[in-house]
Amino acid sequence: MATTHANTAALIYDWNEKERTGPLLRRAPRFVDESIRDGIQSPSVRDPSIEQKMELVRLMDRMGVQAVNLGLPGAGRRAQEDVERLLRFIVEEKLRITANCAARTVASDIHPIIDISQKVGVPIEVMTFIGSSPIRGYTEGWDNERLKKHTHEAVKLGVDHGLPVGFVTEDTTRSHPKTLDVLFRTALEAGAGRLVLCDTCGHATPDGLRNLLNFTRGVLRSMDLEETVELDWHGHNDRGLALVLGLYAFEWGFHRVHGCGLGIGERVGNCSLDLLLLNLYLLGQLDPKQHDLSCLVEYVEKISESTGVPIHPSYPLAGRDAFRTATGVHAAAIIKATKTGDHDLADRVYSSVPARVFGRKQEIEIGHYSGRSNVIFWLREHGYEPSDELVDRVFNFAKSQNHTLTTEEVKAVIAG
Ligand SMILES: CC(C)[C@@](O)(CC(=O)O)C(=O)O
Fold it and tell me: Where along the sequence do coiled-coil regions lie (predicted)?
């Protein structure tokens, strides 16, 4: 693996690399951060302040995320003000990140995007969305003719004002090919430069994603647009597959994948953008000159702080427990590796994510599953001489408890 130190690599047989069918990308992956649009549609999420949104956009930019959805200006005055301020912020700070905004396929949602774009003098990509599945058509009472008319008018409105337009079919993964064929053609003929395929309800399996992509490619090919129109994948996590599908989407040729920090978003959330970045990094698919992931943990923490969504203790990389162990067998191995002085080795003995690369640290704790080596290591780390008597005392106390000891608890036992 490209990101493993040579010493450690010799000690790991990497089945991941034996034969790769997963992400080996034909082109550099690009990302759309939906945290401050779809992310904040989650019922448990608090709307971050404008300052917090700016901070998040700055972190996205540092991580090399190419585009951010700034919101849905059609939602009202506050959304419009936020979008305008964020767009000005991007310009003033000379960030590389580009902006897009969500809009229903109605003129009243698209006009505010045109207005803000003209006011600030920067193009905003219009991401105009329409429910395209039969189940949505049934509940909303829309027929295909109506969908087609709205699609044509909305895309044309953005294009006529010189804005790039992405056409977003909600619930694409449960939509009939005949409907998609009509809608894609209508949008592309009206000048859409991008199709956004959506797994709005988190329905797709990897087969579903591939079948849909092949179908969509067929439509583009028949219009001779395969080389010019870009494809985005936007997925939700109802079945817990969003991250895996995000990785496959890149593998199979999507240009961009959408995601949210900490995987927040409607219901069970979107594809986790931080875990997508982490995985592509571990697969050696991110150019380190373009993607500074030293702030990846900070990004997840800021998402959590600003939205009020806690980070689950076992959440990969940023979770409190991601690099902690109290278990005797695990700790003993890590302690031995630490003694070699090779930190990469110590970080990899019991994790496939190297903590130190992301500014985190492997920690050894003391609990009822611990061995004496945990206690000795802990005492040394905290500046205590591990005498036999002291080790016994802490060890026996830990065995009588049902949880991992806190620093205060260990100190109280040491104090006697
Ligand atoms: C707008 C679209 C991309 C959506 O997020 C739906 C929405 O938020 O209305 C989806 O998942 O299909």
Answer: none
Q: Is the CB of 200 under 6 A from ligand 1?
A: yes
The pLDDT tens digits for 162-184 are 999 999 999 999 999 999 999 99
Please tell me the distance between residue 161's alpha carbon and the centre of ligand 1 in angstroms: 24
Residue with CA nearest ligand 1 atom 1: 129
ipTM of the prediction: 0.95
- Give residues with Cβ within 8 angstroms of 63, minimum separation 6: 277, 291, 292, 293, 295, 296, 299
Residue 24: count of CB within 10 angstroms of its CB: 11
**What percentage of the chain carries pLDDT values higher than 70?**
97
- Atom number in ligand 1 closest to CA 236: 11
Task: Tell me the C-alpha distance between 337 and 339, whole Å.
Answer: 5
Whole-prediction pTM: 0.94
Atom of ligand 1 at shortest range from CA of 34? 5
